[in-house]
Amino acid sequence: MNMLDRRELLKRMAATTVACSLPGLTFGRADTDARFVLVILRGAMDGLAFAPPYGDKDYARTRGALALAAPGTDDGALKLDNLFGLHPSFKAVHDMYRRGEATLLHAVASPYRERSHFDGQDVLENGALKAGDLRDGWLNRALASLGGSLGNERAIALSQSTPLILRGAQSVTSWAPSAMPDANEDTLQRLADLYADDEFFRVRLQQALEAQAIAGDSDGMGRTRGNDAVRFEASMRQAARFLSAGNGPQIAVLESGGWDTHANQGTFAGSLANRFTGLDTGLATLKNELGDTWKNTVVVVATEFGRTVAVNGTRGTDHGTASAALLAGGSVRGGRVIANWPGLSSSALYEGRDLYPTTDLRSLFKAVLTEHLGVPAERVEAEVFPDSDSAQPLENLLS
């Protein structure tokens, strides 16, 4: 068997449903109770739909046909405070908010100020000022302070490939299901014998088997075509299993696509509302599946940029600048909206069309890294987010 065949076989084995195990398996073992989940919404999620500023005097006028009704009315927003509400699809998140387990952040953005999905996601994940400035991810650089090594990784990507945010010098792992047939015990033992003297492949095979043992049934992940919500909920369930396992990782990164709502966006119902329901269900599933681990967990939901304030000619919105982000978990000092609100008057908009960014997403990420994961502040400033003096960590986010 040549090296190419071996690599391809191992890649397939890592994603195959395995019903047996081998002795002496090792996976990442976190030496702290803190858990972190990052959900990246790819496609630029409309923050004004996610958390409508119904109390802004210019909201109804500037949003036009996309404006949601005020709280207390039919199909209206779910009240957070006298200025902001939640889209009515977020019933579980609203319950977390009332329990003090969720905080909304509004008018947030990365340093990126153009409107390309590719470049916006690059800046969100590389932690630099511009796309292409760094070719590794800020979360991978942060892992240098958390220990970990081959076979003892601290972070896992719940995806077919590792996203940029986790790529870099630090070893990470990933897991995704496959519809391939189960491998029998004899085949697995032969592979174990084949890789006995090859540390990299031996460890990766052992990890694949233990990962599958932790994940169990993939619950239809990858098999439910056309239903992003079902796949996302299943991914969140698997993330919870990994993070709550005694020998599991500490950090999980998930992705959700399809947030580019150029046409027929809808208001309380429609395509965007359906995606919001899927996100809400996934977050509720994560909380429920984590059980006691939830109390030590922080979840961040963020997107590469926001969308235009005004509706376009196809009843949707175009690429914008600032959006909203969600901070949730049992370790969160929730029940708050954090926003240096710029307003929606014509003079307050960024370039006359977008929600003006007033809070840097790096300020949120820095706070989570230092307060929750214990990454030294000096390393965060020098290595994780270089050239970020203008983005000071937000304070008192976590309990």
Automatic annotation (TrEMBL):
InterPro entries: DUF1501, TAT_signal
Coiled-coil regions listed in the entry: none
One Pfam family of this chain: DUF1501
Domain of life, per lineage: Bacteria
Protein name, UniProt field: Tat pathway signal protein
Native organism: Woeseia oceani
Lineage: Bacteria, Pseudomonadati, Pseudomonadota, Gammaproteobacteria, Woeseiales
